[in-house]
Amino acid sequence: MKTVVKNIGLLATPLGNKARRGKEQGRISLVPNTYIVACDGYIAAVGGSNATFAGAVDDATRIIDAQGALVTPGLVDCHTHLVFSGWRQRELPLKLQGLSYLDILRQGGGILYTVNRTRQATLAQLMESGRRSLDIMLAHGTTTCEVKSGYGLNLEDEIKSLRAIGELNKIHPLDLVPTFMGAHAIPNEYRHRKSDYVKLICEAMIPAVAGQNLAEFCDVFCEDGVFTVDESRAILECGARHGLLPKIHADEITASGGAGLAGELQAVSAEHLIHADDKGLVMMAQNGTIAVLLPGTSFYLGESFARAGKMIELNLPVAVATDFNPGSCPTESLQLPMNIACLKYRLTPAEVLTAVTLNAAAAIHRADAIGSIEPGKQADLVIWNAADLEYIFYHWGINLVRSVVKRGKPVSL
Ligand code: NIG
Ligand code: FE
């Protein structure tokens, strides 16, 4: 079926099929007064001026009137922990008393609380809470997201979580990309024998996950007191041998060497990077690793902010994502992280737009299919309650999405 989105006041999109780095990240296409033609879910043409669109329309065409609004590619959230049971609002008073994220984890709370609850949940319960969160994401403009497992931390419950991601992908309009993250924390029963847990990940979980085609990527929480650089390397190399591409939670809370390891392993992405040093960032830049930054997590943990300007200067492609999870960033919306990226990282609106579309798509190996508005790509679009790009980085704390188009179809919100 043919869809035409007409009366676009401003079309803002990065261009290309791969991540944009350095100065290129801020060079986007801005086309005033235009329209988009989509056929069977894919963009067929980005039109000339609004006046010429009549030629693209026949009786069967579905017409969406953008009424002069800003249109961008659908947002791509390339880092979430969406499938879980066990919200952690009870940790808020502890946080306010001054306990740190790692203090709470060390006391058996934090991720481990959510692990207990997730183990008790059925597949259907995980899917139901996941579905609610996906609805919220879509209403806030996200049309594709990556989702990590990592609240099961045993073979059965990691598989259950990844199945929930796979099933949600089938039933929900949003596209989901699965990542295996059995190395998200050390489960209580392995507290005093971490090496046995690493062995379980490598010898049982990774072969099972890869064998059943349940994930595309493998991620590790490389952090002081969680997985060391050597343990992370062993897990990610094992994942790679089984076809799971490496990603790393790197240098989130302390400088732990994760960025350097990401470069060494030619990881697809290194994520967080709040405390990454120059040497690690240079290693990443030399090896094609994408920096996935999570400004909502810095905000919520009261941490400092990743050095995004330095990363751009070093010619690294920067992506921005939510990190949606019940502990360090409980929000499904990418919009506040986008505002924070602009105000705290001092990235320009154009750089942030690229970070949440094309570069985020590249961080989940989807840059050939999504992340920009060009012929051949999926017709995933956001129509904003805004007339220009600056507005969505300026008017904050509310949902500025007017409507969403997913694979050429208007999504009812
Ligand atoms: O990216 N760092 C580890 N994982 C998440 C937090 C998960 C949780 O606290 O439940 C993060 O911040
Ligand atoms: Fe995370």
UniProtKB/TrEMBL annotation:
InterPro entries: Amidohydro-rel, HutI, Metal-dep_hydrolase_composite, Metal_Hydrolase. Keywords: Cytoplasm, Histidine metabolism, Hydrolase, Iron, Metal-binding, Zinc. It catalyses: 4-imidazolone-5-propanoate + H2O = N-formimidoyl-L-glutamate. PANTHER family: IMIDAZOLONEPROPIONASE, IMIDAZOLONEPROPIONASE-RELATED. Coiled coil: none annotated. Catalyzes the hydrolytic cleavage of the carbon-nitrogen bond in imidazolone-5-propanoate to yield N-formimidoyl-L-glutamate. It is the third step in the universal histidine degradation pathway. Pathway: Amino-acid degradation; L-histidine degradation into L-glutamate; N-formimidoyl-L-glutamate from L-histidine: step 3/3. Its EC number is 3.5.2.7. Zn(2+) binds at residues 79, 81, 249, 323. This is Imidazolonepropionase. GO terms for cellular component: cytoplasm. Its cofactor is Zn(2+); Fe(3+). Fe(3+) binds at residues 79, 81, 249, 323. Binds 1 zinc or iron ion per subunit. It comes from Methylomusa anaerophila. Residues 70-411 form the Amidohydrolase-related domain. 4-imidazolone-5-propanoate binds at residues 88, 151, 184, 252, 328. One of its GO terms (molecular function) is imidazolonepropionase activity. N-formimidoyl-L-glutamate binds at residues 151, 325, 327. Belongs to the metallo-dependent hydrolases superfamily. HutI family. It is found in: Cytoplasm. One of its GO terms (biological process) is L-histidine catabolic process to glutamate and formate. The keyword Iron applies.
